[in-house]
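Table S2 (text version). Query chain:
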Amino acid sequence: MYRFLLTPRWWGINVFVLLAIPFCIFMGSWQLSRFEARVEAHRSADRQVETAKTEAARPLADLLPVDQSTSGKRATATGRYARQLLVPDRQVDGKNGFYVLTLLRTDSGKALPVVRGWLPGKADAARVPAPPAGEVTVTGALQASETPGDNGISNQGGLPSGQTAAISAASLVNLVPYPVYDAWITLEKADSGMTAVPATAPDNSGLDLKAFQNLGYTGEWFVFAGFVVFMWFRLLRREAEFARDAALGLVPDPEEEARQQPTAV
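Corresponding structure-token output:
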């Protein structure tokens, strides 16, 4: 009954199945490993943010450029406060408000964006305390420049003068006539009347959309493997039933019918 398994057609089907199943399992396992790596990176990033709070502050230059190993570290810089901007639609403790961002002009000639604190409600420059005058030394958690559109960062345009949607060098260089560091810090202790903005984990180290995409792809690949097995058994059963019915004479044998067809003269 199962002699059909030796036909060229079924040889091709069997080879395809034997190759497809391990491939699907391999791809599913690889996607699962990617998800697990992101989970571990998320845990490590959270531990790094907490550990950084107890470490000694280091000069800003020693921590640049910002990467996953330096993001969240305590940095210190000295300079004079210059242009002040507001960053609207930012949440702290589940409440909506805005960041107060002030550029610190350093001796290098570059400006360091410093988030001095957060205030609730709509962005309003009249409610913001003026930055300290003269030379100041600031200490806070180092953060990478934000990318508009990622991780909930607004990419809206047309904001009023004195506001910016994202804290990034690419955005700020269009607003000030001097170079800006490709990084920013959030003060450990906010200036008077404001709430300190907590440091965040570095990009690509959290349980974001990409992580759950990896988990979804894991399920898809294992489903594909199961589907291949299901279809193989379904084809096998149908072919076996057809061969059995042909042997019992319940259905005509295509080869026998071909032999009985009259030859055209």
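Notes on Table S2: The first helix runs from residue 8 to 52. Residues 7 and 54 are 72 Å apart (CA to CA).
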